[in-house]
Amino acid sequence: MQLSPLIQRFVLHFGEMGSRWGINRTVGQIYALLFTAARPLNADEIAEALGFSRSNVSIGLKELESWNLVRLSHQPGDRREYFSAPDDVWAIFRTLAEERRRREIDPTLSMLREVQLETPLSDDDRHAQARMKEMYGLILLVTTWFGDTQKLDTATLEKLMRLGSRVTKLLDVKDRLTSAIGMGSAKTPAGTKTKATESTAKTTRPASKTTPAKPARSRKE
After folding, report:
1. Cα distance between residue 128 and residue 122, in whole Å
2. Bridge partner list, 84
3. How far apart are CA 28 and CA 85, in angstroms?
4. Which of 30, 35, 170, 213 is the most exposed place for a label (fewest CB within 10 A)?
5. Using CA atoms, how far apart are residues 7 and 13, in angstroms rounded to an integer?
6. Cα(56)–Cα(91) distance, rounded to whole angstroms?
7. How far apart are CA 74 and CA 81, in angstroms?
8. What is the distance between the alpha carbons of residues 9 and 20, in angstroms, rounded to a whole number?
9. Beta strand 71-75 with 78-84: parallel, antiparallel or unpaired?
10. Which of 163, 185, 212 is the last residue of a domain?
11. Burial class of 14 by CB neighbour count within 10 A (0 to 12, 13 to 18, 19+)
12. Which residues share a beta bridge with 46?
């Protein structure tokens, strides 16, 4: 199986970036090949295309399976296993982000929670514990936001991400409305009457009763 210069460039780049993402070069190149392949590939085809040994390919595929980044399938009359990457790039993104959260973020949050329960023995410990509390709060906020976005359907998530800097404008409008509503509902000091309340009182005050005039006495003739 011969790779075109276009695909080869993509595969080699993923291999180089693999070490920066926490995976080895072999795993990175295998995934890049499966991502660009027009059909599922078996281990022999992968090994031939990349020039890797069969054992290295098997190890790399097992690593990708543990990340839930490849799909396993079979073909009629063929006992070999075939591998492919998910078709939906958003599904790949969600899976990769979720796996990194589970493998890297969750253990860190657990450790930070535990150190908050320990009793500091010195001023240095108290300072360090305070700094760890700040880190815990930030990571928890980000992971909570990420969990909320994971619940969104792909179309809504894409719209949200396309908003970009317009999100800050929406937040600015929201803050202005909140301030305006807060100022309008502010309580006046006790015993202070505003013109509005005086006017209302006048219109709602019941009319005073008038005393009927006494009839004039007639003169006797």
Report:
1. 10
2. 71
3. 13
4. 213
5. 10
6. 26
7. 5
8. 18
9. antiparallel
10. 163
11. buried
12. none
What is the arithmetic mean of pLDDT over 28-50? Answer: 96
pLDDT at res. 221:
42
Say which residues have a Cβ less than 8 Å from residue 145's Cβ, sequence separation at least 6: none
Structural domain including 149 reads 90-163
Give a yes or no: residue 100 inside a domain.
yes
User: 182 in a domain, yes or no?
Assistant: no
The answer on pLDDT for 219 being more than 80 is no
CA distance 104 to 25: 20
**pLDDT on residue 211:** 53
Closest C-alpha among 84, 73, 13, 15 to residue 46: 84
pLDDT at 51: 94
Q: List C-alpha distances in Å: 81 to 37, 41, 66.
A: 16, 8, 16
In a domain, 95, yes or no: yes
| 149-195 pLDDT, tens digit each | 888 888 888 887 787 767 677 667 767 777 777 666 555 555 555 55
Amino acid at 152: L
Q: What is the SS3 assignment for 66?
A: helix
Note whether 98 and 151 are within 8 A (CB). Answer: no
Other Cβ atoms closer than 10 A to 137: 11
- Model pLDDT for residues 141-160, shown as the tens digit of each residue: 999 988 888 888 888 888 87
> What average pLDDT does this structure show over 66-81?
92
* Model confidence pTM above 0.85: no
Q: What residue type is 163 in one-letter code? A: L
